[in-house]
Amino acid sequence: MYIIEKSLKLSENVYEIWVNAPHVTRNAKAGQFVIIRTDENGERIPLTISKISGDLVRIIFMAVGKTTHALAAVPAGGAISDIAGPLGCPSEVKKFGTCVLVGGGVGIASTPVIAQALKEAGNRVIGILGARNADFLILEDEMAEICDKLLIATDDGSKGHHGFAADLLKQVIAEEKVDAVWIIGPTIMMKVTSNVTREPKIKTFVSLNPIMVDGTGMCGSCRCVVDGKTKFACVDGPEFDAHQVDFDNLMQRQRYYMEHEKEALAQWKE
Ligand code: FES
To answer: Quick check: CB of 214 below 6 Å from ligand 1?
Structure first.
């Protein structure tokens, strides 16, 4: 069993937990993820590593289905049955020059750890955070501390630019030379935003979030199409070249169990 040392609600349906898991924290690198089971009969869910502090790993997630609601319901001092990881390939961290990190919605969760690693590698780092409204904006202070410059966009204009993170990325690229971009957020946001860097041919990474089961390349549930080839996000990713990803195929696969998920959540709530 693994103890959740801290549990906070960040905004509507968005939670932050700190899990005591030294086997994860000892080896974790930016861009990797863990797979959690709340109980021994539970579903396995992949969640990105958001921060490491001593033996604690921070995970930020949105409660959307049965398992994430169950995880949100575990109080501080409570326990989960498993946390496997770190899994996946780390982010490609090296000295690029100027890097832009774009986080959308709960995808912002994994940006500080990548931003920090890029800074330590000697890069200038610009952060762009996008959210539905100011209430859904997370980790703004933390990113402001790490990044050389931080820009904010909200869909409703309640904070920062009234519009999308993609608009701000366009603006940054028009103003200065950008060498590498990371875009992490909902799949449709990653698809749209990565089009901004396609024509100027800026190296762009996205972190894919397909359905996963084992997280070790055995089950095939996380397969996605990159550069026309089948890849397993859990072992070949989760980060891939944004301009090579077949986002439509990914979105179609993400919808595969939607009805079952709705049914499971309804039963859990009864
Ligand atoms: Fe099973 Fe990736 S989650 S192969």
So the answer is: yes
- Tell me which DSSP letter residue 245 carries: B
What ipTM does the predicted assembly reach? 0.98
Q: Which amino acid would we find at residue 63? A: A
Ligand 1: does its nearest atom lie under 6 Å from the Cβ of 221? yes
CB 98, CB 132: distance < 8 Å:
no
What single-letter amino acid sits at 70? Answer: A
Distance from residue 17's CA to the centre of ligand 1 (Å):
24
Pick the atom of ligand 1 nearest to 219's CA: 1
Q: CATH number of 2-87: 3.40.720.10, 3.40.50.12780, 2.40.30.10, 3.30.870.10?
A: 2.40.30.10
Cβ–ligand 1 contact at 212 (below 6 Å) = yes
pLDDT in tens, 131-143: 999 999 999 999 9
Q: Which atom of ligand 1 is nearest to the CA of 217?
A: 4
Ligand 1, from 34, 216, 231, 253: best to mutate by most atoms within 8 Å of Cβ? 216
Question: Backbone phi, then psi, for 86, in 5-degree steps?
Answer: -70, 145
Alpha carbon dihedral 211, 108, 52, 214, in 10-degree steps, equals 0
CATH, domain 98-254, list 2.30.110.10, 2.60.40.3410, 3.40.50.140, 3.40.50.80: 3.40.50.80
pLDDT in tens, 86-129: 999 999 999 999 999 999 999 999 999 999 999 999 999 999 99
Quote the ligand 1 centre to 46 CA distance (angstroms).
10
